[in-house]
């Protein structure tokens, strides 16, 4: 009799001592956070530009007002709560099996769920800095600001510490992510299609035993995953035994 995918997943996790999780937008969408990169009809009615254009460095510099209108409306979501995937990953970290969460999400939900070692490849909405004097501001400051947020110390523009299109990833974070992936015996990739740079390239660094992909919709997987589970990630993680 063929074992069920969830049973296989539990068996792999049971026998692994160095698990790394790599997560994409799908992990957050199950917490009700919209994938701001996805195109829906709403954008076209409300914004004159596609999200990739608005969330770019050029646009930020040239049309700050419009950037922040979109950013506050579509990117920041301060009411979202961790879902079973975030919670189970935090529990797995406490057992010592899970060494790191590498995420492309910027919402901080892994930390809210209790994870400590989180590598945020695209930055975080919870860190914002004045471009002139580098004073720190939290996400609430940005959300509650009127128009373009300005520093209360020097009046400089406060920029979210998120990686915009045309900006490069933090090299230290990228190297740390590669190191964790190289050392892992099990790599679980969840909620991403692996088409967004640098996901595909990062997975190439994996030399361990089990590559697992959990994604709601089947994707064109270029990497050879040992186990593919096409179910909502929260549902899958809620069935993991610890
Ligand atoms: Zn300042």
Automatic annotation (TrEMBL):
GO terms for molecular function: hydrolase activity. It comes from the Bacteria. InterPro entries: DHS-like_NAD/FAD-binding_dom, NAD-dep_sirtuin_deacylases, Sirtuin, Sirtuin_cat_small_dom_sf, Sirtuin_class_U, Ssirtuin_cat_dom. It catalyses: N(6)-acetyl-L-lysyl-[protein] + NAD(+) + H2O = 2''-O-acetyl-ADP-D-ribose + nicotinamide + L-lysyl-[protein]. NAD-dependent protein deacetylase which modulates the activities of several enzymes which are inactive in their acetylated form. HAMAP family: Sirtuin_ClassU. This is NAD-dependent protein deacetylase. The gene is cobB.
């Amino acid at each position: 009799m063929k074992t069920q995918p969830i049973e296989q997943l539990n068996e792999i996790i049971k026998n692994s001592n160095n698990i790394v999780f790599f997560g994409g937008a799908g992990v957050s969408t199950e917490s009700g956070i919209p994938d701001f990169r996805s195109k829906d009809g709403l954008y076209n009615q409300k914004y004159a530009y596609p999200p990739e254009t608005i969330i770019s460095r050029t646009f930020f510099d040239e049309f700050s007002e419009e950037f922040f209108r979109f950013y506050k409306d579509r990117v920041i979501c301060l009411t979202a709560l961790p879902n079973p995937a975030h919670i189970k990953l935090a529990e797995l970290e406490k057992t010592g099996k899970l060494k790191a969460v590498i995420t492309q999400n910027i919402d901080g939900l892994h930390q809210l769920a209790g994870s400590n070692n989180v590598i945020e490849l695209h930055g975080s909405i919870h860190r914002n800095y004045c471009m002139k004097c580098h004073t720190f501001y939290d996400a609430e400051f940005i959300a509650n600001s009127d128009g373009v947020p300005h520093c209360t110390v020097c009046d400089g523009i406060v920029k979210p510490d998120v990686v915009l299109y045309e900006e490069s990833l933090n090299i230290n974070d990228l190297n740390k992510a590669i190191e964790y992936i190289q050392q892992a015996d099990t790599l679980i990739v969840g909620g991403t299609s692996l088409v967004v740079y640098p996901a595909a390239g990062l997975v190439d660094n994996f030399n361990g035993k089990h590559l697992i992909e959990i994604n709601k919709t089947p994707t064109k997987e270029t990497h050879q995953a040992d186990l593919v589970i096409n179910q909502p990630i929260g549902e899958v993680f809620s069935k993991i035994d610890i």
